[in-house]
Amino acid sequence: MRTLAILGSTGSIGTSTLDVVRAHPDRLSVVALAAGRNRDLLKTQCETFRPRCVSVGSQEDAQWLRAQLSYQPELHWGPEGLLACALHADADTVVAAIVGSAGLASTEAALRAGRRVCVANKESLVVGGALMHEAALAGSGELLPVDSEHAALHQLLDGRDPASVREVRITASGGPFRDWPLSRIQAATVQEALNHPTWKMGPKITIDSATLMNKGLEVIEASVLFGLTADQVAVTVHPQSQVHAMVGFHDGSYQLQVCANDMKLPIQYCLLYPDKQPGPVAPYPWEAARTWTFEAPDPERFPCLGLAFEALREGGTAPALLNAANEVAVAAFLQGRLGFWDIQACNRETLSRLPAQPLCSLDQVLDADRAARRHAEGWVQTRA
Ligand SMILES: NC(=O)c1ccc[n+]([C@@H]2O[C@H](COP(=O)([O-])OP(=O)(O)OC[C@H]3O[C@@H](n4cnc5c(N)ncnc54)[C@H](OP(=O)(O)O)[C@@H]3O)[C@@H](O)[C@H]2O)c1
């Protein structure tokens, strides 16, 4: 039986994780749940799964939960609450599904404490990749990627001699603006950007899919996870989102990973690894006629992808600077304070203005994150 701490249980990945738990009552149980502000959903989840440890964003919401729940779990709040859940002695597996750099410290702590950590929080890997590996090594923790492309690569590369691999390719749906001309993309509204054609996700990652920054972050994530150079990671646009990743070998051949575009599959892959069991997603329906298409991404209409490659090549804290600027820019876009095209401009300006440092510690990464946020926020204000 795997015992889970789910950080970000009220989000898109968190609720899908609980669906996977429901499908495997004999293999998976919930020890800890942590969320931010959605106390009503957290309360319902607590009543259903009865976790021993619960954390919420604020002390006030923790008190509200204590009064509302029909049983008395350990109740925590804030960043310390996340750590209490991540490090709970009864949890052997942590699902890191907080959005943004708020998920960094708990992911690192769980790896250092020797847990299996199923990482959806790609920011942890993008921003502090080498540090996450170091933490896993120091504590014998196990890092498994939940992102569908990286779970696909993990399956394709499992047991492979790294020397046989020439490149990996992750696929991108292309987002809602794949076919749009540049002038229309530049004037895109929040509603248009949130209208993702193939994936149902939280708002931040949905905007990142529209700019292709999500794919850029995933390029960095792939490089970190599998020890690949920037030249060994490529992106192919595949609007149907059924092929998730490909590995190209030195002999010129490729292997592809195919499954439905449902995050419950990669989540289950990580939770039950190395076992493959029937779960909540039906086997791929090969009988239905279908057409798959593949195309190259357009760097002019989707410049955020190129910025991510730049940050990866620069290394050190450059990915942290880019990620932080992007979080500020996306939040400002969602609040109506920036236009869609300003997101790439804010990211480019922050990356070019702030110098990257070699990566040494989590504190240093968090300093770079704060500096980039300050800079990006200042830039946003000049646009208002
Ligand atoms: N959704 C996907 O299909 C998908 C696929 C691959 C990777 N990912 C990655 O997975 C992560 C989660 O994505 P998502 O789409 O599930 O996001 P989401 O739906 O926005 O959910 C985010 C979760 O994090 C919690 N949270 C946010 N800030 C917090 C804080 N400071 N303290 C405690 N909890 C906090 C939220 O709690 P409240 O809602 O209660 O405030 C919510 O439970 C992201 O890094 C994303 O890039 C997502």
TrEMBL record:
Positions of the 1-deoxy-D-xylulose 5-phosphate reductoisomerase C-terminal domain: 143-226
InterPro entries: DXP_reductoisomerase, DXP_reductoisomerase_C, DXP_reductoisomerase_N, DXPR_C, DXPR_C_sf, NAD(P)-bd_dom_sf
Coiled-coil blocks: none
Residues where NADPH binds: T10, G11, S12, I13, G36, R37, N38, N121, E123, G202
Catalyzed reaction equations: 2-C-methyl-D-erythritol 4-phosphate + NADP(+) = 1-deoxy-D-xylulose 5-phosphate + NADPH + H(+)
Cofactor(s) named in the record: Mg(2+); Mn(2+)
Pfam families (alphabetical): DXP_redisom_C, DXP_reductoisom, DXPR_C
Top EC class, one word: oxidoreductase
Key words, A-Z: Isoprene biosynthesis, Magnesium, Manganese, Metal-binding, NADP, Oxidoreductase
Span of domain 1-deoxy-D-xylulose 5-phosphate reductoisomerase N-terminal: 4-129
Recorded superkingdom: Bacteria
Ranges where the DXP reductoisomerase C-terminal domain occurs: 261-374
Free-text function comment from the UniProt entry: Catalyzes the NADPH-dependent rearrangement and reduction of 1-deoxy-D-xylulose-5-phosphate (DXP) to 2-C-methyl-D-erythritol 4-phosphate (MEP).
HAMAP family documented for this protein: DXP_reductoisom
Protein name: 1-deoxy-D-xylulose 5-phosphate reductoisomerase
